[in-house]
Amino acid sequence: MKWKLTLRFLRSVMTIVVIVGIVNAILFLSLFFIQLKNNNFGTEEASAETFSRTFSQYVELQSGKPVVNEEGLKKLQEMSAWVQFLNEHGEQVSAFNTPEELQTEYSPIEIVQMYKYKELDASTTVFVSEAQNSSYFLGIQNPKIGRYVMTYDYAKIFKDVNVFLSIFLIVDVLIVIIIGFLFGKKLTAPLHTLIDGIQQLRERRFKKMPAPKGVYEDVFRNMNELSEKLDRHEEERKHLDQMREEWISNVSHDMKTPLASIQGYAEFINDSATDLTAQELQEYTAIIKSKSMYMKDLLDDLNLTTRLRNHQLSLQFEEVNLVQFLREITIELLNDPTFGERQIEFEADEVKAVHKVDKKLLKRAILNFIYNALVHNDENVVVKIRVETINPHTQITISDNGQGIPAKDLEQVFERYYRGTNTTSKHGTGLGMAIARDIIWAHEGKLDLTSVENTGTTITILL
Fold first, then answer.
1. Would you state the torsion angle of the CA atoms of residues 352, 355, 358, 364, taken in this order, to the nearest 10 degrees?
2. Beta-strand runs (E) in 270-407
3. Which of 85, 128, 135, 188 gives a 20 to 30 Å CA spacing to 169?
4. Where do the H-state alpha helices sit in 39-153?
5. pLDDT digit string (tens) for 396-426?
6. Distance between CA atoms of 230 and 237, rounded to whole angstroms?
7. What span, in angstroms and rounded, lies between the C-alpha atoms of 257 and 295?
8. C-alpha of 324 from chain center
């Protein structure tokens, strides 16, 4: 996979370089031929050549001899040039601005030598042309101007060009491969790290990767955030699996005990039906009924807490005055024969605090908290229920001055089936506090529990 990424990038770089090279070559050749066709190179040599060939326009015949007019003489002076006219025998007919050392008679070979090479001096370039039936040398004294005569063979030139182009192409390809490989390897190195990171995620190994600066920085940061989230989810999953196993174990245990009682008393009644008195029969059937009701309550509570946890329970919201609602719960408890003699106090700083709640479920949560305070403490415990407004929230406080909860038990109070080490009562199914907490959360409320041993416990609900 690593080599595939590197080779793919390398192919892309080579393709781009080749395309750019072809386009540049075409553009360069096009411009070259256009300039060549229009003779727009603008060199001083081309300008001097043009001047020498068109100088005939300044030449006139006087008494049979070529003479340069005033405009021509002016041009010669501007160009630092001289002109020498020759007849058909190579003899000087007339001359203008010529240097003293210039010879006046030339053989054919000397004429060729004078044109091809700088025979006069190194700074003078001589051009040859014709005017008024006479030939002339036009010398321009300018060291910047030069002329070179080249002899070439087309076949050899094309052969050499092909060799040079082949070498050039091979060198360019090697350069592209080397640079592309090094650059591609550097660019794809973070991808290799990402691939390794994804492999680790697949194997459930959540390791944070160092994020490089540059193009891949955001990718690495997102990968690390994903790794952290998956790590948290994995921990939560393990915790939930552990809780589920404990839950099944506790349910099995709690179901076995009442089932054993039901089975035992049912068999006893069946085997000794003729020997039992009416009072004993009533007592045993009452136990069977009690255990059956316990199992029903346990299954109902399990169903309720499961639906609350999975957000599968539709709450029936209605506007309720919480002050009146909690006052009625307090009165109901005081009228209950079980708790009629207990000390339950109610306080409110407002006469009205209206919220949209599921009245049935919220009542169950509040009663669960109060029952815990009453059942798990002695008969002298004082339970206080207080309602106060903290705009825009309503705070419900349920406090007692009982034995409190040990610090080591505080974090587990709301766990299913949990009973504290200082709790001897087996009242209820062990799901009451968990259900109450889930109900408050279903109302998008906040729940806080504080407790000090031998001082009391306070539960604060914020809606």
1. -50
2. 317-321, 343-348, 354-358, 382-390, 393-400
3. 188
4. 44-53, 70-79, 108-116
5. 999 999 888 887 777 767 765 555 444 444 4
6. 10
7. 10
8. 54
